[in-house]
Automatic annotation (TrEMBL):
Keywords: Isomerase. Signal peptide: none annotated. Residues 2-62 form the 4-oxalocrotonate tautomerase-like domain. SUPFAM superfamilies: Tautomerase/MIF. The active site is at residue 2. InterPro entries: 4-OT, 4-OT-like_dom, Tautomerase/MIF_sf. One of its GO terms (molecular function) is isomerase activity. PANTHER family: 2-HYDROXYMUCONATE TAUTOMERASE (PTHR35530:SF1), TAUTOMERASE-RELATED (PTHR35530). This is Tautomerase. Belongs to the 4-oxalocrotonate tautomerase family. Coiled coil: none annotated. Pfam families: Tautomerase. It comes from the Bacteria.
Length: 71
């Protein structure tokens, strides 16, 4: 049984429900086509990560993005 975990940042109003549905369908189709796996046994999980819950260079991504806007 294929198990796919997508991690994506949650920003503003994205990803929307429609976008998540498209990701799930698209990844399922890709796994079926490339690996010849049954769609009904393919699990797709989307983890949405808040911008303050990960960092780069010792700063949260929120801080990094704010600093990029100032530059």
């Amino acid at each position: 049984m294929p198990f796919v975990n997508i991690k994506i940042t949650r920003e503003k109003d994205e990803p929307t429900l429609k976008q998540k549905q498209e990701l799930i369908e698209g990844v399922t189709d890709l796994i079926a086509r490339v690996l010849n796996k049954n769609k009904t046994s393919t699990v797709v999980i989307i983890d949405e990560i808040e911008m303050d819950n990960y960092g780069l260079g010792g700063k949260t991504i929120t801080e990094v993005r704010e600093n990029q806007k100032k530059s």
